[in-house]
Every structure is written in C-alpha cells, then in structure tokens.
From TrEMBL:
Statement: the UniProt record of this protein carries the keyword Cell membrane: no
Protein name: phenylalanine--tRNA ligase
TM region(s), chain numbering: none
Entry's Gene Ontology molecular function annotations: ATP binding; metal ion binding; phenylalanine-tRNA ligase activity; tRNA binding
Organism field: Paramecium tetraurelia
A Pfam family it matches: tRNA-synt_2d
Chief subcellular location: cytoplasm
Biased composition (Basic and acidic residues): 103-121
InterPro entries, A to Z: aa-tRNA-synth_II, aa-tRNA-synth_II/BPL/LPL, Phe-tRNA-synth_IIc_asu, Phenylalanyl-tRNA_Synthase, PheRS_DBD1
Keyword field: Aminoacyl-tRNA synthetase, ATP-binding, Cytoplasm, Ligase, Magnesium, Metal-binding, Nucleotide-binding, Protein biosynthesis
Domain Aminoacyl-transfer RNA synthetases class-II family profile: 247-500
Top-level taxon in the UniProt lineage: Eukaryota
Family, as annotated: Belongs to the class-II aminoacyl-tRNA synthetase family. Phe-tRNA synthetase alpha subunit type 2 subfamily.
Cofactor(s) the record lists: Mg(2+)
Amino acid sequence: MDQKHDHANQILSLLENQESINSLQVAQTIGINHQELVGYLLQLEAANYIITEGLKKDQLFLNEEGNTILNSQSGEYEIYQKVPEGGISMTDLQKQFGIDQPPKQKQEQGEKKEKQVEDPKKKLFDQGFGNAKKMGYIKLDKGMISKVANDMPDKIKQELQSFNEIKLGSPQAKLLIERKLASISTIKYFEVKKGVKYNSKFREQFAALTTEQLLSGEWKDCDYKSINLNAEGEKISMGNLHPLLKVRKQFSQILIGMGFEEMPTNQFVESSFWNFDALFQPQKHPARDAHDTFFCSDPELSEEVDNTLRDKVKAMHQTGGVGSIGYQYEWSHEEARKNILRTHTTAVSSKMLYRIAQQYKEKGYFPKKYFSIDKVFRNETLDATHLAEFHQIEGVVIDKNASLGQLMGIIREFFRQIGINKLWFKPTYNPYTEPSMEIYGYHPVLKKKVEIGNSGVFRPEMLAPLGIPEDVNVIAWGLGLERPTMIYYDIRDIRTMVGPEVKVETVRSNAFCVFESK
Ligand code: PHE
C-alpha cells in the first residue's frame, strides 16, 4: 500500500467514531502539513468517502523574534541578569553589551545633517532596557541602575512557552502582538464528515471496467469512479463547410421552403448559345467581349444544338417575331458555338426552359418553380469586392399567371426570410427581360441602399424560340452569394474567401448560417 493510501486510511479511521473532524487537527495527528492533507481530502471527497466544509479562522502565529526568544531568552531578561546586586551605571552596563561610546551626534558644516549611524547593538540594548523597566525588572535612581528584586523569571519567555494555550484577545496575546513577537492571520481549513460512500478502509477506484475484471469476477469487489457527465469531450477533427457553402445551404433551404426545385448546375463550361443567344442577347453585345467573358480554347466550339431550336433563335435575332423586329443583323452560327465559362446562372435557366417546353409537348402545360445556386465566371480585375469567379442564386417561376407584381412579391418574401425587409426596385435593362428591375436593399453595416439583385419578366423574344407557349409567363430574379456571406460572417475582403487565403481555422470556427427573418 502506498503512502497515499496510508494517509487516506489514517484520515478515514480518525473519522470512524466521530461525527466530524477538523483538518488542522488531522494534519497534526497524522504529522503531515496541512497543504498536503488538503490534497488527500479532495481525493477522498471526489470518491464520496467524505464531505468537507470550508472554514476559516483567525489564529495567532509566532514571529521569528518570538521564536528566537523561545529558544534563548528575552532582551530585557538579559539586561536584568547583567545588573549586579549593588547597581551599575549606564556606561558600565552598556560596556557589558560591547557598547563603548554612545555615538555622538555630529553636525556637519553646511545645511545637510549627516545621518546618525545606527549601532545595531545600541538599538537592541535600548529596546531591552526600555522593556526591562516596563516589565518591572530594573529601576533607575540617580544615574544608578539596580534590580527591583532578585531571582525574577523571564516572563515573556514563559508566555511563549505556553503559546499554544494563548487565546486570541487575551492580555497575553495583546502583549505578544504589541511586542511584535506574534501576529494574527486568517487560516483556511476544513470540517470533515463522512460521505455517502464512507468506509474506514480506502479502496482503489478504477476509472473503467476492464475485460480482465469481468472475466475474473473481480469487478464485484471493485470500486469505480463515477462518470463525470459534464466533462467536455475531445474535439473531433472533421470536415467543415466553407462559409459560402453554409450560406448557400441556407439559401437552398429557404427556396425549397418556398416551393422551388433545384436545377442541375453541374456545368461550368457552356456554349455562348445558352449563355447569350438563347437569352436574346445580341452577338455584338459588349458582355460577349473577351474583356468580360472567359472564352475556352480547347475545345473552342461546342456541340451543335438542335437545328430547329438554333434556326428559331437565329430568326428571332435577325428578323424578330412575336411582335418584335429582332436586332436586324447577320447572326453567326459559329459565334453561338463558342465555349465559354458561364457568366451567369441564367444560362442554366434558359436550358431548363427549353427542357420544360419539350415536356409541354408531351404532357401539356404545368407551372413550375426552379432555383439554382452555383459558380459563374467573369473576366474581372480582382479587388476587395470582386472576384473572377463567384456564385449566383437564381429563381425562376413559370406560370400562366406570373406577373411583375408576383415577381415583386416573391422577391420580397425571399429577402424577408434572409432578414432584409426594406427593398427598393429600380427599372433597368437586360436583353432577356422586360420589364427589368434592379433590387436594392438596406445595408445594415454601410447604412445605405446597395444593389442586391436583378430581376425581370423574360421577353417573348427569348421564350418563343425555346418553345414556351405564348400565354405562359416566366419571371426570374438573381443575386450574388458572396455579398450576403460577407455581411453574415463579417468578411471584409472577398479574396480571403477563395484559394490559399482561406484560413482553415476560420472555416472551422464559423457558426452555422441561420438567417433571422424579419
Ligand atoms: N442574370 C442576371 C445577372 O447576372 C440576373 C437576372 C436573373 C436578371 C434573372 C433577371 C432575371 O445579373
């Protein structure tokens, strides 16, 4: 049995026939210091063998000088002993203590007084002499010092010898404190009582049940540590969603909640046809310039689209239809086949609309709500708010009754759910929508209106070639994912969200995105 067990058992046996014990006494009885005992007490308490109650009290402590006197004698008593029967002069008495000349006070020339050099022997003597008089050992009469009585005891030493019995507040205690031989300080200790698992013998507590203990049956006699249900588990290292993905997920949830279905977006490379031509965007439009769009070199051209579709789109651009005169230019088949990195998710929507129109041929008309969230690319100069690749969120409603009012209502509801309820609409121009509206929201940090999206009613010139019946309207809106993410996670520079600038630690520590709807 190790020492720890010995001490634990000693403590427990002290408690065996007693209601409670005092840790100060226990430390004395066992013969260890109180600090060490407290360690054992805490362990025993953790194992429910005991319960402790913290207490404190003021106690008288012997100072160093008090200890010195206890081991020899007091200064006044030393003086008393050196005074002979017939008395002695001050000078002679001082000589007995090795003090030859009482130091004279020297006065220096000038203003400065030289500090009197204090002789430690003299200081001690003066102190002892004063006390000897006060305690009634000696008297001073006409320059002669004599004993008051013979065979007096060293009273202070006697007090110190019974120091442990001196009560706080007693005249003895006051005397010792006044003489700076003792002082009062507060000590902390414990009252110890039996705990729910009290046993006079300490049994080892196992942290876990082992196979061996089970097989041997030893477990029946073992004590086990209780499980700390409040302990924190070890941090698990696992994957975490990037802030953009956290916000993206939340946007999907909202749109799904509003009855939208997700469109397949898994195609970064798109033909100019779906990204521009099918959207009634003229081939000379500046957005189709290499300054704004990334063109692919290999393969440079995409596969052919359905010829009928292609010819319908071509005719709409060149000569128009559905009440429009088109753009009146020579449409290039090759230009439409150029592969690009899609510049907006509306490329996904145009393709989807064509697919829906195909289905209408078989099944007839049905309304539909779609959304997409994915990456798009633009040949931008990078700065704190612009990247060459970013994400767009797009919603599309295909419905005979779809109107501008419905579009505004859906947009309001969508933004309400991400916590933006102050919206402004401003007319704008898109080649593929008419009317078109920019969406502005109130930026809580910048405290001003900022553009947060774009929207509109798809033009008949776009819908007719795709095969959408004339009486079916399509309304749509789009917005970026980066800006709301930056606001939500307080990200100041967009460039820290992609590539090597991304801090894994930040990604780990960012909370889930849950928008507060207004
Ligand atoms: N495609 C537009 C953009 O990139 C957004 C938009 C989507 C506008 C749908 C109208 C309708 O800004």
